[in-house]
UniProtKB/TrEMBL annotation, chains A, B:
This is 2-hydroxyacyl-CoA dehydratase. InterPro entries: FldB/FldC_alpha/beta (IPR010327), YjiM-like (IPR047678). Belongs to the FldB/FldC dehydratase alpha/beta subunit family. It comes from Pseudodesulfovibrio senegalensis. Transmembrane segments: none annotated. It comes from the Bacteria. PANTHER family: 2-HYDROXYGLUTARYL-COA DEHYDRATASE, D-COMPONENT-RELATED, DEHYDRATASE SUBUNIT MJ0007-RELATED.
């Protein structure tokens, strides 16, 4: 499809075309600087480059063709929204734009100034008409994982239909029951939206497809334990980011190929950095496309990132749904139990996250951890102090970073990260 | 009891005596400036002055005497912790110090800087050993009403035993079930702590006692609809604040007397301000003792405050527990239903609050509303925008204030509030 036809599509989606052109231009330049400039990239990165270059083009076209054929598109930006159910109703689940400064002034008219960049971006992209994913959605599904999102969805619902799932705040038996009810309620909502019935057979397939995507991300994660690091943190983050946008089966196949290539590299002791390059685990808040600021600064500071302990990282793929269920009830129970294993900072207490971060740092042979909290993200800011303590107890150094999407603090971050990396070398 | 004996008591509670002396001195001066300076105060205010002057003295002595007799003291600072249950187990529920800057630097070592002043204060008072209520507690009971508190209780639990109740985030049937489970769980916890069994008879009495306190606060609230305003907003706030600390039966009796006096004043058309003084409703975050900043600034700016739409205000007393239950199960159901009527900003959606604020402003013949959000309080900051819209639709002007406990912005607040009041005159 030509660029001209994409413009017609964006026009049909009522995007602000001029502003969107500007966004794509910045995104392209940014991608060139941060991604294409890398030396010795994997052949499999071609897939990443293609998906990213077509993220507002071909992928949107696919969504629109699916819609023309009667399918529905559901948008979310949280790993608690059970894609298995979405798929079982033959709908498509996609992420929403939330990784760049966009429409900030407009967003601040409906949500407070002291809101994290991720939420402000998600609302801003909608208000500034810049996200073809958001505009393609037949339904947006929110959740109650933090005060900022919980209340922002109320404002968002005035802009576009927004359905909210109640994620509990503890992991008690009663909380699990609430969550099961919420999954059933979501299932009914998706059935209503699509006109399709979620059968046991379809849900089983949905569980298999999403588990397969989780497995390939697990495979990638494990391969990153190798030294020298076989893939840059930037590319690995991009893979995790793309997992929320691209077709799940295509994604799984392509990333499996990329993992094959990684295995060859590892066998040949090839890496993206020398063996003595300090290895860092990123931990904390999710980094949505194109929020590559911290990985770029970190890898420019002489370190290599070997893992992402975040929702756009391990929290998205660590746990699989049990596939042994045969009835809808059994599968819903299995889904509920899997999702309640997520170690999101929305839970109290959330001590398992401390164990998981520590174990992950060790498994990936990380020399240190950078904890990343978005400014005004209270759950992860709180936990950064606990993670620091837990890592200290294991002799793993941690640097705590609090930032947003602006580029103003890049030099300051660079100085702090370089100093941290020096202590690890 | 002499001041000397109080010092011994505070020493036994391991307070930082010198810092505590300093706090009481500031508090006393503050109280003199803001309260004792008022003209034509009610005779019933003598009770308020006494309670406040003895808040760290006589009341603490009472608590200690109760403890010596085998009773337990439970601290909380949220209207979701069901005092009926606490009382039914013969324990005493009290508020925790959270209304002044204290131990800020220490608190910021365990909770993020971007935390609201209320939470920072509650943690700071503990860490700086300045609150005899906190130090008297056999158990602190937290809840999950906001991210800031939810995660702060985790840190608090490392300082002193802290039990957390999960307050749901929606008002669905499943959420109500979760909350019922949480009330039962709390009941079991209090039984364990006290060694007492909560019987239907005792719970019935607890419900009656707490409802009686709510009724007298409702009575006070209604009397404030009179013009000229028969009581200052400062004194009314203090009554609401004291309701969390003083013995419930004494409080109810004393405030009923004060209301009798108010009725006489109203019949005689006596007031604390001229009939044409602009009448304001305060709405939003709670103001804990001694957070009198905004009421003082407001009433010094030529307005009179006629209501507090907050947890230390209407949210604490608007709804009664149904008293018709005879079995424990029936009473627990009634409790759960009553607490789930609270229009806390923790719920999504929380549209009933918009109706309630609008109705309250009208009932109290308010000329305008000041919405008060603590800096970094995301739930109430979000809702301030909605409240503004709802009030605008009814032609009621609103001023949105975001502040904390520091005195740095007093002059700026004064200027803004004076300008707002002028538009109402």
């Amino acid at each position: 499809m030509t660029q001209q036809n994409y413009r017609k599509m964006w026009e049909a989606l009522d995007l602000d075309l001029d502003a969107h052109d500007g966004l794509l231009e910045v995104l392209g330049k940014f991608y060139g600087d941060i991604y294409l400039s890398q030396q010795g990239r994997l052949a499999g990165a071609e897939y990443l480059d293609f998906v990213l270059s077509e993220i507002h083009g071909l992928r949107i076209q696919e969504l629109r063709e699916a819609q023309a054929a009667g399918r529905k598109v559901i948008g979310s930006f949280c790993v608690f929204v059970p894609e298995e159910i979405t798929m079982a109703a033959d709908a498509i689940q996609v992420g929403l734009c939330a990784g760049a400064e966009a429409g900030t002034e407009q967003a601040e008219q409906v949500i407070p100034r002291n809101t994290c960049a991720l939420i402000k971006s998600f609302v801003g992209f909608k208000m500034a008409k810049l996200c073809p994913f958001t505009e393609s959605c037949d339904l947006v599904v929110g959740e109650t994982t933090c005060d900022g999102k919980k209340k922002a969805y109320e404002a968002f619902n005035e802009l576009t239909p927004t359905y909210v799932m109640e994620v509990p705040q503890t992991k008690s038996k009663a909380a699990l029951e609430l969550w099961k009810t919420e999954i059933r309620r979501y299932l009914a909502e998706v059935e209503k939206l699509t006109g399709n019935t979620v059968t046991a057979e379809k849900l089983k397939q949905g569980i298999k497809t999403v588990n397969a995507r989780r497995r390939v991300l697990q495979r990638l994660n494990k391969l990153r334990a190798a030294s020298p690091a076989p893939i840059s943190g930037r590319d690995a983050l991009l893979i995790n980011q793309i997992s929320f946008y691209d077709d799940p089966e295509r994604f799984t196949a392509k990333i499996n190929e990329l993992c094959d290539e990684l295995e060859t590299r590892i066998a040949e002791k090839q890496g993206v950095a020398d063996e003595d390059t300090p290895r860092l685990l990123l931990s904390g808040c999710p980094m949505a496309v194109p929020n590559w600021k911290l990985p770029y600064v970190t890898e420019s500071a002489g370190a290599v990132i070997v893992g992402e302990e975040s929702c756009i990282g391990t929290r998205n793929f660590r746990d699989l749904v049990d596939e042994s269920g045969t009835t809808l009830d059994e599968m819903i129970d299995a889904l509920a139990e899997r999702y309640m294993q997520i170690d999101c900072a929305c839970f109290t207490p959330n001590t398992e996250r401390l164990d998981n971060v520590t174990a992950l740092a060790k498994d990936l042979n990380a020399d240190g951890v950078i904890h990343y909290s978005l400014l005004f993200c209270q759950p992860y800011s709180h936990e950064s102090m606990k993670v620091d303590k837990a890592l200290q107890n294991e002799g793993i150094p941690m640097l705590s970073i609090e930032t947003d999407y602006s580029m103003e603090d890049v030099e300051q971050l660079k100085t702090r990260i370089e100093a941290f990396v020096e202590t690890l070398a």
